[in-house]
Structure formats: structure tokens, C-alpha cells
């Protein structure tokens, strides 16, 4: 059996910068997916990525004008240009990406990633990175499908007893 | 990392078939491209057929077709059909089992195994075809690689 990704008509989906009024949707979507409510975290992310240093910080949302979609945002992506951390030349980092479960398989994640990639290119970076938990099969499959491969870093950790 | 010949052949065969979903591809055509015997490839195809990944049509004009979902079948799925699992090599009979040295080595090797499994388990046949396309285009990204 094959799955068919049904792309929305171009005029029904828009990617734009986040607005303060979107944060309630972001919090709700994140809680739905992760099971954790983090209102303070997302308000802080909005302050830092939605209102400051907008030439290198990007908090984008996807919304639909299709009446068949429920109101509110369908997904979001957050990233920024980071320079010289871990010895890395400036590159774009994506650290959050979520799409409403009922709105998946429509190319929304791909559109969000392409939109932030375009912002990174405008900021003169030529590489994009992210980090994914090994057991997060959904995100691994998605980013791999978008052409991302393992980078030159290994993430290490240690318990602080 | 080395794969057994059968695993490599299975991956190549699935890539050939998935790239031409609407066609029946002959075993002889694939075996000629990869320089293997049709007998060897037929055994691999038989295993893929048992796993539901390939559908074979006998007779004149027949051949094989990809029977899976290219966006869901991963390299790990394919490799596990042909390779012995690491767990089978690290059980109670493994050298050093039951010692602290054995436990330390198992922890390190387990780290590598985890990375391998996550990598192979996250690359689908569809993603591989995009990679093939990128190499075909000399490393440049193609605009459209897969017909969904």
C-alpha cells in the first residue's frame, strides 16, 4: 500500500512570523504533542525569538485559510543563527518543529523547514543543523527525508550525582 | 560499517524497483547492473518477497515490482532480514559476560549500536532515492526526486 501526501493548495497555506496572539496555540500544540505544558517557556521563546534580533532569530508559524481546517496555527518552527559555539562557524540551528497531528502528511513541515532555510540563507549562512533524540523516529525520518545527514559532532552527556 | 553482500543487494534491488514503481523489472537486469549472478539475486528477491516488500510475476514479460511503502520501509527493515542481530552476539555466551570489564565494553558497544540503529532506522527507501538522485546530479540537490 502506498501513502499519498496530499499537499494543500498553495493559496490555502501561509508561513509567517509568529505573533503574540499565536502563543496560546503554540503552547496548546506543544502540550498536545509532548504531554507537558510549558507556558513560561514559550512566552520566553516568543520574547527572544519573536521580538528580538529578527535578522538571525526566526519563529515561524503555518496557518491555513482552508475552511476545512480548524482555527489556529497548524505548525511552527523555531531556529536561529548560532556562531562559534562548539567551534562551529555560523550556521542555522532548528530547535523546535511541530505540526498539528491532524494536519500531517500535507507538506506543512517541509514548508516550514524551507521557509526557515530561506531565512538562514538571507542571513548568509550555508549550513543548517538540528538535534534529534535517537528514539524520536518521527523527527528523524522527517529531517532525513529533507536531506539532512549526521554532522561532525557527537553529543555527550553525564549524570550529575 | 560493513554489510553482508545479501543486504547490499537487497537494498540495491529495492532502490531499482522503487524508482520504477509502475514497471516490472527483471532479475537479470538488476543482476547485470550490480555484477552478481541471477541465482544469488533470486534468493535475495525471494526473501524480500517473503517479507512482503517485492511482488514477482513469472513468465514472459514478468519481473519484480516494489510492494512496500517507500516512505516507511527503512534500511534497518531490509538489513534485519539478512543480518544477524547484535543482540545475538552479546548474550550470555559473549566473552567477558558477567565481568565488570564485559559490562563496560557492552556499554561502549551499545552506544555504537544505538547510533547505527537510529541511523539505519531513519533512512527510508524514499530518502535513499533522493540521495541517489543527488549523487546522480553531482552532489547538487534536485528539485523533485520522488513522485509521491
Summarize the structure.
Chain A is of the alpha+beta class and 161 residues long.
Q: The CATH topology of chain A is what?
A: Aminopeptidase
What percentage of residues of chain A falls in helices of 4 or more residues? 25-40%
- The rounded distance between the terminal residues' Cα atoms of chain B is 31 Å
Q: State the share of residues found in helices of chain B, binned by percent.
A: 40-55%
Structural class of chain B: mainly alpha
Identify the notable features of this structure and list them briefly:
heterodimer; A: 161 residues; alpha+beta; Aminopeptidase; B: 148 residues; mainly alpha; Arc Repressor Mutant, subunit A; 6 helices; disordered C terminus
Overview of this protein structure:
The complex is a heterodimer of chains A (161) and B (148). Chain A is α+β, with helices and mostly antiparallel strands and 161 residues long. Chain A has a single domain, classed as Gcn5-related N-acetyltransferase (GNAT) (Aminopeptidase, 3-Layer(aba) Sandwich). Chain A is built from four helices and five strands; from the N terminus they run βααβββαβα. In chain A, strands 1-2-3-4-5 form a five-stranded mixed beta sheet, with helices on both faces. In chain A, helix 3 links the parallel strand 4 and strand 5. In chain A, helix 1 crosses helix 2. Chain B has 148 residues and is mainly alpha-helical. Chain B has a single domain, classed as Arc Repressor Mutant, subunit A (Orthogonal Bundle). Chain B has a two-stranded antiparallel sheet. In chain B, helix 1 packs across helix 3 and helix 1 packs across helix 6. The longest helix of chain B is centred in the last third of the chain and has 21 residues. The radius of gyration of chain B is 18 Å and the shape is elongated. The C terminus of chain B is likely disordered. At the A-B interface, helix 4 of A face helix 5 and helix 6 of B.
Amino acid at each position: 500500500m502506498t501513502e499519498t501526501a496530499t499537499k494543500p493548495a498553495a493559496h490555502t497555506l501561509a508561513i509567517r512570523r509568529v505573533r503574540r496572539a499565536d502563543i496560546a496555540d503554540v503552547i496548546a500544540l506543544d502540550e498536545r504533542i509532548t504531554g507537558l505544558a510549558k507556558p513560561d517557556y514559550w512566552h520566553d521563546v516568543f520574547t527572544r525569538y519573536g521580538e528580538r534580533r529578527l535578522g538571525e532569530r526566526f519563529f515561524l508559524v503555518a496557518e491555513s485559510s482552508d475552511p476545512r481546517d480548524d482555527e489556529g496555527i497548524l505548525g511552527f518552527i523555531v531556529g536561529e543563527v548560532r556562531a562559534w559555539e562548539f567551534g562551529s562557524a555560523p550556521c542555522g540551528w532548528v530547535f523546535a518543529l511541530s505540526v498539528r497531528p491532524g494536519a500531517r502528511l500535507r507538506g506543512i513541515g517541509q514548508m516550514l523547514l524551507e521557509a526557515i532555510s530561506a531565512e538562514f540563507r538571507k542571513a548568509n549562512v550555508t549550513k543548517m543543523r538540528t538535534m534529534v533524540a535517537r528514539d524520536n523516529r518521527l523527527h528523524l525520518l522527517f529531517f532525513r527525508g529533507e536531506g539532512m545527514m549526521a554532522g561532525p559532532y557527537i553529543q555527550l552527556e553525564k549524570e550529575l550525582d | 560499517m560493513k554489510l553482508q553482500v545479501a543486504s547490499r543487494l537487497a537494498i540495491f534491488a529495492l532502490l531499482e524497483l522503487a524508482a520504477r514503481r509502475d514497471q516490472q523489472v527483471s532479475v537479470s537486469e538488476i543482476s547485470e547492473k550490480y555484477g552478481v549472478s541471477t541465482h544469488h539475486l533470486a534468493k535475495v528477491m525471494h526473501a524480500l518477497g517473503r517479507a512482503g516488500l517485492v511482488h514477482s510475476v513469472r513468465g514472459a514479460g514478468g519481473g519484480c515490482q516494489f510492494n512496500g511503502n517507500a516512505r516507511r520501509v527503512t534500511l534497518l527493515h531490509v538489513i534485519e532480514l539478512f543480518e544477524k542481530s547484535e543482540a545475538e552476539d552479546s548474550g550470555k555466551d559473549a566473552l567477558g559476560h558477567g565481568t565488570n570489564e564485559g559490562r563496560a565494553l557492552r556499554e561502549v558497544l551499545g552506544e555504537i549500536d544505538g547510533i547505527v540503529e537510529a541511523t539505519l532506522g531513519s533512512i527510508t527507501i524514499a530518502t535513499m532515492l533522493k540521495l541517489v538522485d543527488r549523487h546522480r546530479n553531482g552532489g547538487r540537490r534536485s528539485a523533485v526526486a520522488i513522485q509521491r
